[in-house]
Amino acid sequence: MARRKGQQNSFAPFVAGILGWLVPGAGHVYLRRTVRGIIIFICINGLFWSGVAIGGVFTTDPLKQQWWFTAQMCTGVSGIASWYRQEQYRKTITKQIRISPRPRWANDKQWWDEYERELVKRRLMLVYPTDVVARAYAGIAGMLNLLCIFDAVVLAMLGHFGERIGKETESSKETSQ
Fold it and tell me: What is the pTM of this model?
């Protein structure tokens, strides 16, 4: 059964939100706002990966930086890929120094001391102010993407599909004549 022009898909807000989380800007592309989606993709991913480039693989740290990590995961696939790579490094390092892969709890001082000594020795430890800048870039990218997800969901709920520039220009020309 074909949909009428004014009828909207009830799953559109959900789909736009999920796509916008997975790949920043994809929710807007789904809503046929391609230019906006591409701009969001470039800006959010550029900001996130700039933070990772500044701070290295340990920018996304769920063990000691839970709040920044939560914000970084709002970038979807980029955040997950960065976290996965960081976990691979963590496993490799902990195998080589023969300690347990993860501390039993976040405040296990002996584990952290040994682990951080090894990171310093390998020059992988993030230091102040680089750690703050790197995590802030990546975390702010996630928070900005959260706003973009909200925008896509609201646009979908209102039924605003497609770019409106051409239609607004045509209607303003007709009224001026």
Answer: 0.79
